[in-house]
């Protein structure tokens, strides 16, 4: 669809845009509004108030480019360059996963195990856009948060997001705990690692997102296994290790946690009742699924 260059009411463009987007989205009307807000630099109220104005030519060109990308199947968040997470916005790009509601369960589980005040040391392994680390930093401003990622492009986005939000996180580049200083230990480690198997059928729907952050290996458990081994010398006594995982990986992952010496091993479900987070404590008591 070519967006008209001039002399067309914004309201008419928005209507036609929604019709075109219906081919790829079940929220086409909302996406049409968001794309127009992005190219015009307006908020929703301004867009509504100025809907009878003509679409500027420069905005039409930018809109046409965004629409082409979206109709090709590129996720809306990458087209816009931002994505919502909890109560804030994050800059995103194809270098990082798009933050999802599933990960909010991991943040909730972590916050339940963090004191409101104090200098608890927290590590986010595979931080990507910084979504988890920044959410924890916002809610627990006195905690000392470290975020690690292998990708320099991901860390550049995480740093930019931290700056935009006015938050301080220690960002380190490297492969899991190899990025850390010798002897550095934590009271809580969280991770949303790659957990898809190489032949997972869902990968076709995720073709625009970075495979490095999605695919663990042949079984889908490879990253969990690496992290469980890597954190042994990084956990303070009584520290928690929490993972986000696939809906069917909880039982096997909790077996691995128990076999690795963790106690108080638990699972936590998302709003749809699917197990989404599992974790355990380095020297606690047994627990079940919340």
Entry keywords:
seven-stranded mixed β-sheet, alpha/beta, 2 domains, two-stranded antiparallel sheet, 290 residues, nucleic acid binding, 11 strands, 10 helices
What is the fold's blueprint, element by element?
Blueprint: H1 10-21, H2 28-40, H3 44-49, H4 57-71, H5 76-80, E1 82-85, E2 88-91, H6 101-111, E3 121-125, H7 131-139, E4 144-149, H8 152-165, E5 170-173, E6 186-191, E7 196-197, E8 215-217, H9 222-230, E9 235-244, H10 250-259, E10 263-269, E11 275-281
Parallel strand pairs: 3-4, 3-6, 4-5, 6-9, 7-8
Antiparallel strand pairs: 1-2, 9-11, 10-11
EC number: 2.1.1.297
Binding site for substrate: 192-195
Protein name: Release factor glutamine methyltransferase
Describe this structure in words.
It is a single chain. Helix 6 (101-111) packs across helix 7 (131-139). This protein has helices at residues 10-21, 28-40, 44-49, 57-71, 76-80, 101-111, 131-139, 152-165, 222-230, 250-259; strands at 82-85, 88-91, 121-125, 144-149, 170-173, 186-191, 196-197, 215-217, 235-244, 263-269, 275-281. The protein is α/β, with parallel strands linked by helices. It folds into two domains: 10-73; 83-281, Vaccinia Virus protein VP39 (Rossmann fold, 3-Layer(aba) Sandwich). The chain is elongated. The N and C termini lie far apart (48 Å).
